[in-house]
Fold each of these.
Amino acid sequence: MADPTARFKRHLDQVALDTEKLLERLLAPAAVAGERLRPARLLEAMRYATLGGGKRLRPFLVVETASLFGAPRRQALMVAAALECVHCYSLVHDDLPAMDNDSLRRGRPTVHKAFDDATAILVGDGLLTFAFDILSRPQTHQDPALRVRLISALARAAGIGGMAGGQMLDLAAEGRYAGPKLNFDDIRNLQAMKTGALLVFACSGGAILGKANRKELAAVERYGAAVGEAFQVADDLLDVEGDSATVGKATGKDMAAHKATFVSLLGINGAREHLKTLVRKAEKAISPFGKDAEVLKVAANFIANRRS
Amino acid sequence: MADPTARFKRHLDQVALDTEKLLERLLAPAAVAGERLRPARLLEAMRYATLGGGKRLRPFLVVETASLFGAPRRQALMVAAALECVHCYSLVHDDLPAMDNDSLRRGRPTVHKAFDDATAILVGDGLLTFAFDILSRPQTHQDPALRVRLISALARAAGIGGMAGGQMLDLAAEGRYAGPKLNFDDIRNLQAMKTGALLVFACSGGAILGKANRKELAAVERYGAAVGEAFQVADDLLDVEGDSATVGKATGKDMAAHKATFVSLLGINGAREHLKTLVRKAEKAISPFGKDAEVLKVAANFIANRRS
């Protein structure tokens, strides 16, 4: 068998291909359920927002953790597609002028630039709704009780106690609303909600699908939380050190906004040290799975050291 | 027993009270699941968007149809609360400057006026997500298979094939995007998606909860569709004939926007005639339920003749 790094790259590429194919099928003009008049503009914009881009890290984590527990890959891909809809919706809404006002995403114009603000708002609404449609389908899992567990977990990861709440706190961190100065723990909490919650769901979603026991579920969630924080520290470092052509979105924004980030609080070297600690934490969390989890260990390192 | 009209008014008032109380409890600061740092601003704005207003027509329809089939009222109210979260999210997003740009709703400043655009976007996202959280809970129904049916039905009613798609078409109807001129059938389809789908779900949600058979479900869905269209015709008439103080939102907007509506296509008298036909259709659809459905018949008339 190839070395873990090569296997990781192969797995990541394959999941990206499979996710793309599934989203393409789920969002095919003929497959959108229940429509009468076809809102072609909305569908086109939803496809623009979800297809043809991204590393598909979240889908990768769903598929890898699901495979730890022997869950069928085609079911894991359904969960991955739903999660990717939520992730893409959040990017579309966060990029809006009223939010982060970004015009570049994955090296392409953001949805509100390619279409318009109203369409971008509806794209986000449509994708968030569609995620729950996908999870409610029997193809996701034959047991409705398990589908409900996935739906509940995703709703909590994405809602006010998770991603949406984290984005609200992130806007406050830019000083937009009155409030206390954020310390290290505040930033960790904020990021655990904004970025971490969906990455934890990626791992717990796969484990739920594979009927992991409580201890196994807790282990992959610890892994997901460490990877989620590492993802964000790396993001903050890229904002300082990366150039926008490589990163695929605007950089240098945090400093310009005097925003509290891991880098502003720890410094560049401190942030790099923290990153190492997080990778060790992630590796330790999944060490009970032995050789099966080797690819996930490589993934943690990849996420921490990514250049885009 | 009091006459049907008095009973209808009593039922409507009671559902409004009960829905308010349940939403108050579900959105209580201590009850929001999973949060670490409390995004107080977001919670406050979500409460502003959902509490203290509205006739609660959709909750009323859920509770009434559920009672036709003997489903427990407390379960019907959970479905009603979830549906009301979706309805309120759609108002918040539709009112945004990029969409309909409204500053008045239920006689109060809209969410983006009382807070700001970014908060309003997140309020909508948070409420939409929360609706699926609510439906996934065992309190909604003990059987997860039934909860998944509700989730699937709501996702389809709210998504690109339903409300979100209808809103996209509605923006197009204002001439914002290039496209063919809309005829009567186009407007009916558009409104069936934009307004009708959630009102149909209100009825089918109650019926699903009460384990209605296929024929019974079809009957209440026909009722919901007729009532949904009547609701919109009445809305179009109010936009022409109502004053904003009574209606609680801006009026005269459709004509100013040269927008194709039931009134612009049928004229005022034609729209009034169409309204009568729709009420008869609604009454006929639920006539098989006999005396049990009397309050729903009054409701159809009330919705058609509402002044606000």
Amino acid sequence: MLYLEDLVVGSVTELGSVVVDRGELVAFADRFDPQLMHTDEAAAAGLPFGRIIASGWHTGSMWMRLYVERVLGDIANLGGLGIDELRFPAPVRAGDILTGAVEILEARPSPRKPDRGTMVVLGTMHNQNAELVMSLRSATRVARRPEPAGD
Amino acid sequence: MLYLEDLVVGSVTELGSVVVDRGELVAFADRFDPQLMHTDEAAAAGLPFGRIIASGWHTGSMWMRLYVERVLGDIANLGGLGIDELRFPAPVRAGDILTGAVEILEARPSPRKPDRGTMVVLGTMHNQNAELVMSLRSATRVARRPEPAGD
């Protein structure tokens, strides 16, 4: 288990890849973001992107899975604080291979509570053509390493 | 269809409600955010929130569904630009009844492209106890009303 003190600001971790499944893309959008640009291939042909594209919430959720598996699951996570600067500079399509990464931007102790602090990361997803398709900043409350019991 | 010119800055729209389904909460987290605080009731009993809570990505996605159904589906949406200040001030639990709202904060023409502009909204979700459980700012590219064809 990694505590706040163990986090190295500036370190970058590759998160591996996920293939965007067409069925999941459509099912996610049908449930959570039912716009024709996400759900209807025929309608999407007449829209700016030409083919259906993933909901941004789906792309973000796919990044989260990679982040939890490779990084966050090993950290003494006390809960998510929020996300900023979530951007989608290029569309995500069915069959795309998305590769995630995360850089630790900050790891600072709480000024008031000695047992915790805040980690801020920059998360990214690139597609198989090395295009950036998503970026975000995520802040998480992280425990500090417990003091050994004294006597 | 509503164009940029039709949007009223300061207007607030109630988006209706959604009940947080336990099965969906766990299934979403199993796929996209597999942390014990979201997936394992027994483990969650020993964690800060005491019971499983929804992934923030799930809560955001539930808000998106309400927003698309009640507001965004009627707007000449050219694509999402991004999300900022996504916050989760209180936990979301299975069985909660979440009620969404959206306020239009900005509706400004593009300085360069005469056919479009940017809409910025403040989105919120409150639970059945009137606690704010999520807030965000979302920016969307919106078409301006086409000029009637001249002669």
